[in-house]
Design brief:
The protein has 508 residues and is an alpha/beta fold. Helices cover 36% and strands 19% of the residues. The chain has 16 helices and 17 strands. The longest helix has 16 residues, at 314-329.
């Protein structure tokens, strides 16, 4: 339907590709453009404007944020066997619901870092999957991530279920912790009232010193335990990487099992997240600071977005919500598409989710090394039919598993972010609108022809334009303006937002 409207619009305005708009704008002097814009701006005084309008008109351009170095925050790792309440304790310490929590064992699989603050002390809290000896398959990968977390932390919180008592698995973990020579706090969880404290006292037998009875669910005893932790927690981490204050945030999104975690691992140069053929392995968004193409980036691996969020249950439902939250915090999204499978409605919906969130967009076609000639012909046809609305997004063909052409991802990210950050000076934008509307005026609707009085770019990230008009502009005409903006100013890799403010003349 959208295609038909655009075709009608092209018929209405004729062939606009060769109307010489870009050349005419190039001849417009900057000073002259500013003078014209000022005249148009003063003309708005004849129209009814509210405080919000005036605020939009007075917006100044943003400055660019540079990278700044920050001291490495101290790291607290939470470890233990499955289903002892580690993620619930993470949420309690952070004071917000971040980690996915469910009664089913093994919900957390990767080591997931969260930034926290307690009594004016900032720190990094690392949640881990349940550690089990002699684990196989995906459970072995989960256990390996927990062991890495122990190596890369300053203090360990070893969580035990006080209602069950010490198990053989807990004793295995104790032997592992003794080798680290790091401060270890024994946390006896699920002690919901004073009557259960004798059960916690029985954990002295583990040989890790005094157990701290807490209830992650109700918050009982957590503050007392944290006071002791912060007595030994260093101000600056002895093991964590130095933090960067301004790296660009990149969310890796896509449907389950397209290779998102493999891409993060290959970019990081280490097994940072669990990779398994089982769809939906990742559940919590995983942040990792990565150097790629000579620059520092913060990559976020997210859970695969399944077909219908409202039909999901348990951990998958909350993982999808956290994926959407991670997308909101990101600046650019890399949507991973599996070229060995047809482009699905689900892929298109994920791309639309990125557009709705206003993030810059890069399309990464994964498993390109597995593509044969027959599938390639079908793929190009699918791209033309299903992704016509994002032809402006940079495209890279990669193999996340082998790392093939991964270096092409950086120029694509830089291009998309450059478009996302782009600002058009007010004078130039109004010169663009004047030239455009003179050559291709809005059609007459109901005996009236809406006019654009003035325009300004109200913000970037994504580029957002506000048009003050005498009437409502057709959606097709707004898409026409967006298309011409791309032709003249680029805006490659970013959605463009065009808002209207219909204003009437003041009563004399």
């Amino acid at each position: 339907m959208t295609d038909q409207r655009d075709e009608n619009l092209r018929d209405e305005y004729g062939d606009v590709a060769d109307d010489g708009l870009a050349e005419r704008l190039a001849d417009v002097d900057d000073e002259l453009a500013e003078q014209r814009a000022a005249a148009l701006r003063s003309g708005l005084s004849d129209y009814e404007l509210d405080d919000d309008d005036l605020e939009v008109l007075e917006l100044s351009e943003e400055g660019e944020e540079g990278i700044r170095y920050l001291p490495a925050l101290p790291v607290i790792a939470i470890v233990g066997r499955p289903n002892v309440g580690k993620s619930a304790l993470v949420n309690r310490i952070l004071g917000r619901r971040e980690a996915v929590v469910e009664d089913t064992p093994g919900v957390t699989r990767d080591r997931v870092s969260y930034k926290g603050e307690y009594l004016d002390r900032r720190f990094t809290l690392v949640d881990t999957g349940g550690w089990e000896p002699d684990a196989r398959g995906i459970d072995a990968s989960v256990a390996a991530q927990a062991e890495v977390a122990i190596d890369l932390c300053d203090v360990v919180l070893f969580v035990v279920d006080a209602t069950v008592g010490a198990t053989a698995t807990d004793e295995h973990v104790v032997r592992l912790l003794r080798k680290t020579m790091k401060p270890v706090f024994l946390v006896a969880n699920k002690v919901d009232d004073a009557r259960q404290e004798p059960e916690a006292a029985a954990l002295w037998n583990l040989g890790l010193g005094e157990p701290y009875p807490v209830s992650a669910l109700h918050g009982r005893g957590v503050a007392d335990m944290l006071e002791q932790v912060f007595k030994v927690l260093p101000q600056v981490s002895a093991v964590a990487k130095e933090e960067f204050g301004g790296p660009r945030r990149v969310a890796i999104v896509g449907r389950p099992n397209v290779g998102k975690s493999s891409l993060l691992n290959k970019a990081a140069g280490e097994e940072r997240v669990v990779v398994n053929d089982l769809a939906g392995t990742t559940r919590d968004p995983v942040d990792e600071q990565i150097e790629l193409g000579g620059k520092i980036w913060r990559f976020v691996d997210t859970a695969g977005i399944r077909r219908r969020v409202h039909l999901q249950q348990g951990a998958d439902f909350y993982a999808s919500l956290r994926t959407q939250a991670a997308l909101e915090k990101a600046e650019v999204a890399v949507v991973l598409l599996d070229v060995t499978q047809p482009i699905s409605e689900q892929d298109v919906r994920i791309i639309d989710l990125v557009l709705e969130s206003g993030r810059a967009l890069v399309l990464a076609y994964n498993k390109w090394d597995q593509l044969d000639d027959d599938r390639r012909r079908y793929l190009e046809r699918e791209i033309e039919q299903d992704l016509h609305h994002v032809t402006w997004a940079p495209r890279v063909n990669i193999s996340a598993r082998t790392g093939r052409h991964l270096e092409k991802l950086v120029p694509a990210l830089e291009t998309a972010l450059e478009g996302w950050d782009t600002r058009v000076p007010t004078g130039k934008f109004n010169a663009f609108l004047t030239e455009l509307t003179q050559e291709h005026p809005h059609p007459v609707r109901g005996g009236k022809q809406p006019r654009i009085l003035f325009g300004t770019q109200a913000g970037s990230r994504p580029p957002t334009f506000v048009l003050f008009t005498t009437g409502f502009l057709d959606p097709g005409y707004r898409r026409f303006i967006q298309r011409r903006l791309r032709e003249v100013y680029g805006f490659e890799g970013t959605p463009i937002v065009v808002n209207m403010r219909v204003r009437e003349r003041r009563q004399r």
